Amino acid sequence: VDEMMKRAGFTNVASRYGLKKWGNVTLERLLADPPQVLLAGQARPDAPTWAERMLSHPALAKISHRMTRATFPERLLYCGGPTLIDTATTLAAARRQVLKARA
Question: Are 23 and 14 in contact (CB under 8 A)?
Answer without folding.
Answer: yes
